[in-house]
Amino acid sequence: STLDGTLFPYTTLFRSLVRGTSARPRCSAGVFHEQDQGEEVNQHPYPDIATLRGALTRDETTVEAVISAYMDRIDEREPEIRAFVWHDRERALAQARDLDRRRANGEPCGPLCGVPIALKDNIVSRDEPTTACSRILAGFLPPYDATVVQRLRHAGAVFVGKTNMDEFAMG
């Protein structure tokens, strides 16, 4: 599936952060693969979106538990990897609790309900710091969401933070 990280390098980097590898993706024929450098990989119980959605559908877990586990792993590995320029555990958990409430009430949550998403720091999201990794934009809080963010929110994705990049994505 294109949503499980096979075609998106940032998803693959995020997955390697969560799994505990420092492996970076390699590209062949436009498809990104994780490199196994002989490290012990901590397998996450939900290695892709389909597995996570299935577990949520069968009520084997909650969105809050999933997001909490991802945030724990980010907190543990972030000092070494430094993939994020901003992440907010409480905001992500609040989104997760809202999705769990909606699921419990039988309300629709969308096809990405409970899927953790990290945005590149040049994609604006309402009231979340967006700096394009430039000091010029330090403290900027956009008053609106980019179209992709609106669509991901509507689909039920949970935003965990903003990822590092070259300044203004010019690298």
Short structural summary:
The chain has 171 residues and is an alpha+beta fold. The protein is 37% helix and 13% strand.
List the helices and strands and how they pair.
Elements: H1 9-19, E1 25-28, E2 31-34, H2 49-57, H3 63-81, E3 84-87, H4 89-104, E4 116-120, H5 147-154, E5 158-163
Helix pairs in contact: 3-4
Structure description:
By secondary structure, the chain is α+β, with helices and mostly antiparallel strands. It has 5 helices and 5 strands, in the order αββααβαβαβ. The chain has helices at residues 9-19, 49-57, 63-81, 89-104, 147-154, and strands at 25-28, 31-34, 84-87, 116-120, 158-163. Helix 3 (63-81) packs antiparallel against helix 4.
Question: Which features characterize this protein?
Answer:
171 residues, alpha+beta, three-stranded mixed β-sheet, two-stranded antiparallel ribbon, 5 helices, 5 strands, globular
Distance between the termini: 28 Å
CA radius of gyration: 16 Å
> What's the overall geometry?
globular
Kindly report the oligomeric state of this protein: single chain
Mean of all residue-level pLDDT scores: 82
Low-confidence stretches are: 1-10, 21-41
- The secondary-structure class comes to alpha+beta
Percentage of residues in strands:
5-15%
Helix content: 25-40%
Secondary-structure element pattern, one letter each: HEEHHEHEHE
Query: Strand order of the main beta sheet, please?
Result: 3-5-4
Count of individual helical segments: 5
Secondary structure: number of strands: 5
Q: Strand count, sense and closure of the main sheet? A: 3 strands, mixed
